[in-house]
Amino acid sequence: MRGVVDLGAVKAASDAAAQRAARAASAPQGGADQGAGSGGFVFDLTEENFDSVLALSQQAPVVLEFSSQRSPHSIELGAVFDLLAAEYAGRFVLARLDIDATPQLAQELVMQAGVQGLPAAVAVVGGQLAPMFDRAAPTEEQLRGILDQLIAVGEQRFGLTGLAGAPGGAPAGEEQDEDAEPPGDPLLAPAEEALDAGDFAGAAQAYRNVLAEYPAHTEAKLALGQVELLLRTQDVDAAAARRKAADAPTDVDAQAVVADLDIAGGHVEDAFGRMVETVRRTAGDDRNKARVHLLGLFDLVGSDDPRVIKARAALTSVLF
């Protein structure tokens, strides 16, 4: 991930940015599906679907592959990418950019990513652009290693879990039994007993114990998020917290506390709007901290909730 830069400069560098945003705003939901292939994890990147495809980097690493029919090596690389995209099944997304068909968009991204020649690819992880390779195609085995590293970084630094339907463990073909969600609820009994006793801290630790052994236990993961929200808000003076946030609009911690209060009180859209605005106002580590907190709130509400879908689009517009 050396050389990571903010993708906000991509759009700022071009007069076409506003037009892309307008098209994305007026496009029907599911615009990212345009041109999708290989099980829905490969897209032909265009001006029209740029925003919706790049927004997927908040769920899984997006690999931007620069391609041209005039480059035999890039064609060969594309075939390998297609196979791996199908195999990894949503743990990364492939966005193929035909530099001949979309020269303006290609020029923007080539300049921003510093690409010198084909074959070439860069990655977008959690809204951040990172170089992969250019002017020399890796072997299939080397490419697997690069993809595994990107996926690991996405999981560890940005909390990315892959697109819906993606396997929660290693790439296809590797054993995943250790991470499989166990049947039944006996593992959650200690946490539920702690909740019944009003011991939120004990319940949180009990859920963490389950996840330490079964990382893919979705019920424990969701419940832990809810309990942690209770812990963050149970002793907060709401009036004082809102005054502090109003006085310090770039204080990520202050804004996050009020967003938590809004989520706990059912004011979901207010919470999302506050954190999106905080991301817009901040930069560097503060921006990433605000973004990660917002993604955690998305998980609490649920990825299929229309309010989450709307807020993800707003976050993407701010980041790009």
UniProtKB/TrEMBL annotation:
Alphabetized SUPFAM superfamilies for the sequence: Thioredoxin-like
A Pfam family hit: TPR_20
Database matches in InterPro entries: Thioredoxin-like_sf (IPR036249), Thioredoxin_domain (IPR013766), TPR-like_helical_dom_sf (IPR011990)
Segments passing through the bilayer: none
Thioredoxin domain sequence ranges: 21-152
Start and end residues of each stretch annotated as Disordered: 163-188
Protein name stated in the entry: Tetratricopeptide repeat protein
